[in-house]
Amino acid sequence: MVDIRRLIQTVSVFLCNAWMLFPFTKNIYQGELKSVCVPGLNCYSCPAATGACPLGSLQTFFAGIRPSFRTGSYHLGLYVIGMLGLVGGLVGRMPCAWVCPFGFMQELLHKIPSRKMEIPRFLSWVKYGVLALFVILFPLVIVDVFGYGENWFCKYICPAGTLEAGLPLAFLQPHLRELWGALFYGKLAILVLLLVLMVYTRRPFCRVLCPLGAIYSLFNKVSVFRMVYYPDRCVRCDECYRNCPMGIKFYEGANQSDCIRCLQCMRKSCKYGAIGFSINGVATIVPGPKEKTEAVSG
Amino acid sequence: MMHLRIVVLWACVLFFLFICPAAADVEASRNSVVAIDAPGVEQLTREENCPIFISIMTSRCGACRSELTAYQEMYEKYGDEGLGIFVVSIDFGTSEEIQGLVDQLGLTFPVYWGGEKVMKAFNISFVPYKIIVSNGRVLEKQIGGWKSTSEFEAKINELFEACER
Amino acid sequence: METKGSLVSYALVLLFLVLLVAGINAGEASVVWEKAITICLSCIGVG
Asked: Whole-prediction pTM value?
């Protein structure tokens, strides 16, 4: 039986990366679809990419904000902020679980049999630091003599960029390898470290580093789509935690910031009907052993 | 708690928007950026200068911007001896951003604006994109910035020797 | 409680929808396009 989420994730990977002519053109796709950001983390410099990366675009606006004031165009990045807020306001962190190619890859790598470990919880806060500093603050305030900042997250951290763009482009255009320096090897080290961690722990990049997940997570408690917890049905069997791709315990908070709404706990783990969701404040009917129950959200 | 986080995030964004200097450069520019099309860029390779360095760039690219000072320095040093330097911006939309850089740096060599048409015509995906010409022949088309001014100067001197005068 | 919660959701969705439209009106989509179709070397770790 095909898992609907796996199916959507697979389709999303191919929709976000549908330009299959790159082995012949040796170049990235340059069509107009690229003026639209995809909801997941997918590098726009990937030869196959058909859309723009929301994080890269956001940094570009912040880095160019002073020149845009100077020329009077006043590009504040509202286009990207609006798009992220719209998605977040509707479904919160759901894109991480259903459409993000990098998240999908992490789940697949985690299927490799090995001893599994858990990430210390306080590390979840690191991604907010990465968001505040590398995506917002540094591109805005550290500028050259012309007033331009840099895409700090793309340049110094993003493992998706190294994997999807840095490495494939170096294959397509070999002279790029001559330009590899400390910057590239540093980013490669981050990527390799994360790839190894992905085998041993659940979604390490999403939980610790991803600024996009950090943005969406701010909306988890206020989005139109929300998870609902029925506490008097829960027996604390921890089955939800064992199957959770993000390693959270649902009963500790129905809409906690690391919940990516994959619905795996609701559809597969919980046998007691303690987990449901609501849309527009209207809870879906959850079949369970008890007839009547009080819903607790938030 | 969650509302607080959103408010703080927005406060940060707004704060940095308003401390951004919005002052416009009012000084009249001496070196105006000239619009150019793809055949025009081809024409540049047939200029009399030797060697010729054509750099296709965008204002938003850091590596491209940092090269401009090296170009100016070398142009002042070797321009009289025949070195040709042409910078073509492919900024989308308008030439305002590249004009701002030209004014700010006081560039004296020719700077053009080709926009997305030149980008499409030359099938460019990487910037800076260089075309190096010697004796009317295109020697190299390469991507990436010069590592240093001295690397650039060494290349100029190497090519000067091959120039037929 | 649920009604109040969904009011906040809709206010947020509306706010960001307005921002999105404002951004498109300001011509920001072409900035994204320009960035997305030119590979700036620093972004792929080589310059």
From this structure: 0.86
